[in-house]
Amino acid sequence: MTNSSSNTTVEMTGPRGAKPKRALSPRNIMIYGVLLVVACYYLLPLYVMIATSLKGMPEIRLGNIFAPPVDITFEPWVKAWSQACTGLNCEGLSRGFWNSVRILIPSVAISILIASVNGYALANWKFKGAEVFFTILIFGAFIPYQIMIYPMVIFLRELGLFGKLGGLVLVHTVFGMPILTLLFRNYFTSLPEELFKAARVDGAGFWGIYFRIMLPMSIPIFVVAMILQVTGIWNDFLFGVIYTKPDAYPMTVQLNNIVNSVQGVKEYNVNMAATLLTGVVPLVIYFASGKLFVRGIAAGAVKG
Amino acid sequence: MTSVSIKNLDLNFGSVKVLKQLNLEIDHGEFLVLLGASGCGKSTLLNCIAGLLEVSDGQIHINDKNVTWEEPSDRGIGMVFQSYALYPQMTVKGNLSFGLKNARVPKDEIESRVARAAEILQIEPLLHRKPAALSGGQRQRVAIGRALVRDVDVFLFDEPLSNLDAKLRADLRVEIKRLHQKLHNTMIYVTHDQVEAMTLADRIAIMKEGLIQQLDSPAEIYNRPVNKYVADFIGSPSMNFLDGDMSTKGKFKTGGTEIDLGNYEFVDGPIGAPVWFGFRPEHVIVGEAATSQPFSTKVVAEIVEPMGSDTLVWTSIENQPFRVRVDGQASIKTGDEFLLGFDPARASIFDKENELRV
Amino acid sequence: MNSLKKLLVATTAICSVTAGAFATDLEVTHWWTSGGEAAAVAEFAKAFNATGNNWVDGAIAGGGGVARPVIISRILGGDPMGATQLNHGRQAEELVEAGLMLDLTDIATEGGWRDIVNPTGLLDSCTVDGKIYCVPVNIHSWQWIWLSHKAFADAGVDVPSNWDEFTASADALVAAGKTPLAMGQQSWQSSGAFGVINVAIGGLDLWTKINVNKDAEAAAGPEMAKVFEAYGAARVLSEGSNVQDWNQATNMVITGEAGGQIMGDWAQGEFQVAGQTAGVDYTCLPGLGVNEIISTGGDAFYFPKNDDPEVTAAQKELAKLMISKPVQVAFNLKKGSLPVRGDIDMSTANDCMQKGLEILAAGNIMPDGNQVLSADTSGQIEDLMVEFWNDTSMTPAEAQAAYAAIIAEAD
Amino acid sequence: MAQSTRPNRLFRNLNAKIAALPMIATALVVFIGFTVWTIVHSFTKSKLLPKLDFVGFAQYERLWGTRRWLVSIENLAFYGISSLVFSLTIGFLLACLLDQKIRFENTFRTIILYPFALSFIVTGLVWQWILNPEFGVQNIVRSLGFSEFVFDPLYNADVVIFGILIAGLWQGTGFIMVIMLAGLRGIDQEIWKASRIDGIPSWKTYIFVVIPMMRPVFITALVLIAAGIVKVYDLVVAQTNGGPGNASEVPAKYVYDMMFKNQNLGQGFAASTVMLLSVLVILIPWAYLEFGGRKGDK
């Protein structure tokens, strides 16, 4: 028995190996069945949007919104993008799209830059009172925007930014700050403190450490923050409707105007094409970023 | 009479073979320790026995019953985990009785089993506390208690002491030994700590890469390791190995030094091939007494590591590092030249080609 | 819509060639986005562009309820537009008082507005402390019901000539699968219809007592109870009318799906765009055919104060233009509203407009709700009416009680 | 030996303080300053312009005497409680399903979460279309032969809030599911092993062991949903615009309409102050539980 490296074959009767599993066990049928039904429920609206947007109006009037399009036409898409009217402006959603892009780029860049520096200061350069301000900031994330809308109008007017792009960028920066600061603070806190100490011993200052040590190490969290902000700002409606003027309306506001204001007959196919077009940007980001998106919302949420 | 018997067990994770054609027989009342470095498959084997992992091929019998396809709870086992795995929202009593309640054990029966387990483990005062209010040691006692109340013959321990600090670990180790002596259950215990293995086990199975390297009593494993891996793994500080050959029958030769193997017990008689000559540091004798040993030589102390009870001296033989464990009171200092000697009968010699004991 | 767009682009292009460097961009906000309305706005734009300036259209969809907040917050927010539509009346009161609006008294005096604007009440609504701050551009009267000839023909009954006949024919319409009364879901529509029924059933005196003098007792009184009963009856007639926007409801009348719709004279534009002829395809009854009267609400343009003198000049230019004879004619024909001056030839106007002009000339006029009630009170009444309209469990008596409470609080 | 002077306290970490200025300004000016400003003005009779013309609690009295506001609150309470219950339950159940070591887990998760990337406007509009009785679900079911079938939540004042709930849940449950899934994955695998050894069926393990262990996750999810609910605005605007009638009004819309449409700022401020209070009612106990317990000084 001394050497039992045991490659001898032993005689076996009865069950051996893995318990045979039926692929169609009741448990599996239940799990996959429920998941399939759920998946259908979640996919249905997307499907309906796509199907409707590819139909002509006669087909819509006759038919079934769940039926696949028979005569596929891209006319509604063209119309939604470049011809749909709000009032006298019949430039379609394209105007809103470019407005959104114009709002998006500086808002995302500035809000992330400021929040990351804030988070960095909070994580590594604690000063007296910092936590107090931070606590207020986090509480601020829960204050209903409605209570701050009007003073913000006055504030922007006094700064001369009302109705201007800069004003909306400021609003997005301010209201995006709590969650982003939290995100960055938590991330920087999780980095090894020795690194920061070593850099200080090496004589690097506040900005030096930020740009040369922290920034290069934090690319993932910047990506997460970007996903969070791009979807958030793109999907914003309230600020867009209050703090911009009609020719600068972001896509969501313009979409609502196009769909909910009618000239004669409602063109459901154009409406759905417009709705899809507005949803495309966040959807693309979502599908492309996959796990990072999940990580972003989970980090922003669970750690709160 | 076997308690647990494992026959030709295979376990694959995808294309990775974690356990390979493994056979193991464990007697009733035996304390078997599965020992090995992390990733050797020892915990995997334990999980297979518990039924927490589905085996790919082979059989598992517990108490002469083929349980290969049985649910964990029907295998007649109890298990204790490294992270204790207590149900945090229940009291100690709740933790002990939850499984029993679920199995619809009568209420007074539950009471008496819980009381007995609590008494054995001396956790009566803790019964109404929640796990969060317990120390690590207390938690692990509760976890053992949870296995105890199941009234089973086989206990499985998955590195139960690894989350505890050194002192508690030593205390609880003794406790487990006492428990085994009292209950006489079969215990299968996974650890990477050789002290635990040596102190607790009736037999130790040393595992590497999904294979059992050696299954033997602790003494046998210590004295007569079957291969270089086992020899190196067991013992602290680990065994010295001198690189040489046995081209002259009955003699080991490394560089200019020749050691007469004298009373060494060969497995199949001496071979004329390159070998490793293994010798445990604690079996070396230094100073005047060394001259009385079959082999002795003069060496220089290169590094001296005093550890209180004893001192580890680093030296070299034929430019190969050689450690010597000497008494803590010995007065060897760095740079000192001293005499060492040993009896080659206590050595372990391994064929350099297959690293098996010769 | 497309042709309209081309037209605008074309005119803009011509102007930019002819006028070149003198062009001042003037952004004009309004909420005229339906087909007929947009065509009317284009008349303003065309005329303004012809002066060498540039009309920047700032249409805000969703009706006055959506657009007004945008307009006001922009004025308050220090980002004023060049000119903006507002219903004249009390909506802009505070903006004027806060000194945010351009004083138009000089051009009004110069153009003799006091003499040409008819009825003069319109100009009074633009006047604060003796100064004029807005240009009334049209008269819109709520007091109409629009009837579909097709619907009544399908139901095999004659087109009614008053409200009573209309309610009497409802059963026949229902039997023919029609909705007797089309009504959009937006609150201002049900509230407007209430005002119309109020005048038609209760008479002008009662209306004045309540809306002008804020007599809560009258609002709670038995005469008003009759109005609420009639209003409740109208609610029953509109069952099955699920559309949101007023022009969708009008469309139900145009297609013959619905028998009629109580809506202001702006509905006229929709019939026109649909190529229908008054008296042939549809009939309009002022004052529900009971009490022929015209309310003289309407739209006015305000010109927020601006630091740029060039903009101010352009603003005054536009103000003069809007009240000028040719623009008034062109605009109002498209819009389906009545012109604000009595001295122009509206002979090309259709049947319904002619009726309106006659009533106007006869002086059967009343002020509009917006002129006598604050936005706040109007809003409260709107909320009440739309709730009543949609919540069939609310009895007319309950609604009346709530109504009286609002009037008692009104300022 | 050089004497190093102790730097002025204010200037210590000066760069950090400068860097934190935007945060400090936001916290003080926007979150505190604006809030206080609005609360103060809610006691005035500001109409179109904010004026410090105090009228005591008159705005609040009117608020609670206004049917539309009461409807809004009722809707909010109903929508809030339903979406809390449903999204926590559905979110958790879906997370449990995905936690069963299933194939295509990523695909399913992606499908269930994607609506969360969409704006409420898009969500509202697509569900407006699906629930359209002329073309949508009602029409389909009728064409299958059930000619009396009625499903027109967006046009029926009694059930319109369900129509909004369906859309809201469609958009938001995926998010809750992801949080729950993260929570489930955070549970020590050995707990599962222990319960299998104890022979506890997995549904029982979920109820008696896992859910109690996930209490913090549930609380976080609850606070997030609750804070989101109070802000519900876009969805209603896009889907029903408050209709039919006022049946689907919500407080956020009441505030907006009062401020900008009815030109009654004071009333809007009072309503938004009540919104703030309702958030604090949720937030303060949570913050107390979450932070108060651990740090006694906060």
From TrEMBL, chain A:
CDD domains given in the database record: TM_PBP2
Cross-referenced Gene3D superfamilies: MetI-like
Matching PROSITE patterns: ABC_TM1
Membrane topology, as annotated: Multi-pass membrane protein
Record domain ABC transmembrane type-1: where: 97-289
Chain intervals with Polar residues compositional bias: 1-11
Intracellular or extracellular location(s): Cell membrane
Region (Disordered): 1-20
Keyword check for Transmembrane: yes
Alphabetized UniProt keyword annotations: Membrane, Transmembrane, Transmembrane helix, Transport
InterPro entries membership: MetI-like, MetI-like_sf
Transmembrane feature ranges: 29-50, 103-123, 132-153, 165-188, 209-234, 270-288
Superkingdom field: Bacteria
Protein family (similarity comment): Belongs to the binding-protein-dependent transport system permease family.
Stated name of the protein: ABC transporter permease
Gene source species: Maritalea porphyrae
TrEMBL record, chain B:
CDD domains (alphabetical): ABC_MalK_N
SUPFAM superfamilies on file: MOP-like (SSF50331), P-loop containing nucleoside triphosphate hydrolases (SSF52540)
Keyword ATP-binding: yes
InterPro entries linked to this entry: AAA+_ATPase (IPR003593), ABC_transporter-like_ATP-bd (IPR003439), ABC_transporter-like_CS (IPR017871), ABC_transpr_MalK-like (IPR015855), ABC_transpr_MalK/UgpC-like (IPR047641), Mo/tungstate-bd_C_term_dom (IPR008995), NA-bd_OB-fold (IPR012340), OB_MalK-like (IPR040582)
Record-linked Pfam families: ABC_tran, OB_MalK
Family: Belongs to the ABC transporter superfamily.
Descriptive protein name: ABC transporter ATP-binding protein
Organism: Maritalea porphyrae
Lineage: Bacteria, Pseudomonadati, Pseudomonadota, Alphaproteobacteria, Hyphomicrobiales
Automatic annotation (TrEMBL), chain C:
Annotated InterPro entries: Bact_solute-bd_prot1, SBP
Keyword Cell division annotated: no
Classification via Pfam families: SBP_bac_1 (PF01547)
Cell compartments where the protein resides: Periplasm
Alphabetical keyword list: Periplasm, Signal, Sugar transport, Transport
Secretion signal, residue range per the UniProt entry: 1-23
Chain segments annotated as coiled-coil in the UniProt record: none
PANTHER family, A to Z: ARABINOSE-BINDING PROTEIN-RELATED, BINDING PROTEIN COMPONENT OF ABC SUGAR TRANSPORTER-RELATED
Function: Part of a binding-protein-dependent transport system for a sugar.
Similarity remark: Belongs to the bacterial solute-binding protein 1 family.
Protein name: Probable sugar-binding periplasmic protein
TrEMBL record, chain D:
Location, primary (coarse class): membrane
One family name in Pfam for this protein: BPD_transp_1
Cellular compartment(s): Cell membrane
Residues passing through the membrane, by range: 20-40, 76-98, 110-130, 159-184, 205-230, 268-289
Alphabetical list of Gene3D superfamilies matching this protein: MetI-like
InterPro entries the record matches: ABC_transporter_permease (IPR051393), MetI-like (IPR000515), MetI-like_sf (IPR035906)
Topological type in the membrane: Multi-pass membrane protein
The ABC transmembrane type-1 domain, residue ranges: 73-286
Key words, A-Z: Cell membrane, Membrane, Transmembrane, Transmembrane helix, Transport
Family: Belongs to the binding-protein-dependent transport system permease family.
PANTHER family: ABC TRANSPORTER PERMEASE PROTEIN
Name under which the protein is recorded: Sugar ABC transporter permease
Biological source species: Maritalea porphyrae
